[in-house]
Amino acid sequence: MIKLIVFDMDGTLLNSNKELPKGYFEVVTQLKKLNIKLGIGSGRQYQTLYNQMGEHADDFVYFSDNGTLVYEGTTSVYTNIIDKELSDQALLLCRELNCLNTVGTYSGAYLPNDMDPDMVKEFDKYYVKQIWVDDLLDAQDITKISIYDPQADYQLIKKFEVIQNKLQVVQSGPEWIDIMNIGATKGAALKEYQQQNRITPDETMTFGDAMNDYEMMQQAIYSFAMENAQQAVKDISNFLTLSNDEEGVLVILNQLLDNQGDPSCFIK
């Protein structure tokens, strides 16, 4: 039986307009009745994710900020902080490359006061808890640095190869690059949670589409790549579902509900 379901948000649960699928909260209610724990594995900020879950917010496990901050409801259960010297190196490289970026911490997201107003609107979509400063180097206890690349051509990440022996640099979507500690992934955080709660991979279901979901998919026997997923994610996943715009996550969850939480219906 499935005990834990973890899904990515952007490109997975959310459609291209960043909307939750219709009937989502009804499905959440039904899964809770089967004592299935629900989790969100996302590059998004914890506070943003919590707000999106509405009246069900306290029922979720949040593998937020690409797994560097994990909360069960409002309780912090795991934090992965970057050494200050290393985060400073990454931020100085961002400055040299003239990147638009924010810094994730336990307290919220730090953003620079001189950010272009048009870009502020973009960052507002993902960060509801904002701390505005003159210099991002002032941020303390950094867990993740997120870079926004409006070109979305997957070329900017190549310029961060100079720090990849010290920090992990991952493309978390067409327009986003995340920098974290080496080994800090949604998958590592999920594995830690599974061990703490005695949940096995064959009791776990995951959904993802981007390279920051790669390790998370390896922590579940019932790993579902979206039709719109990057090929490497499809290759590592055991199953495939419809695209995010076709509500592929809900299609599978409804099938699981029809089978009372027993995933054997997906094995042919």
Top keywords for this entry?
268 residues, alpha/beta, eight-stranded mixed β-sheet, six-stranded mixed β-sheet, 9 helices, globular
Please give a structural write-up.
Helix 3 links the parallel strand 2 and strand 3. The model has no long low-confidence stretch (mean pLDDT 94). The two termini are 17 Å apart. The protein has nine helices and 14 strands. The relative contact order is 0.17. The strands form two sheets. An eight-stranded mixed sheet has the order 5-4-3-2-1-12-13-14, sandwiched between helices. A six-stranded mixed sheet has the order 8-7-6-9-11-10, with helices on one face. The longest helix has 13 residues. Helix 2 runs parallel beside helix 9. With 268 residues, the protein is of the alpha/beta class.
In order across it, which strands form the biggest sheet?
Answer: 5-4-3-2-1-12-13-14
Shape descriptor: globular
Q: How large is the count of helical segments?
A: 9
Biggest sheet, in brief? Answer: 8 strands, mixed
What is the residue-averaged pLDDT? 94
Helix content: 25-40%
Structural class: alpha/beta
Radius of gyration: 18 Å
What's the SSE pattern?
EHHEHEEEHEEHEEEEHEHEHEH
Strands, total number: 14
Q: Regions with pLDDT < 50 over 5+ consecutive residues?
A: none
Strand portion: 25-35%
Distance between the termini: 17 Å
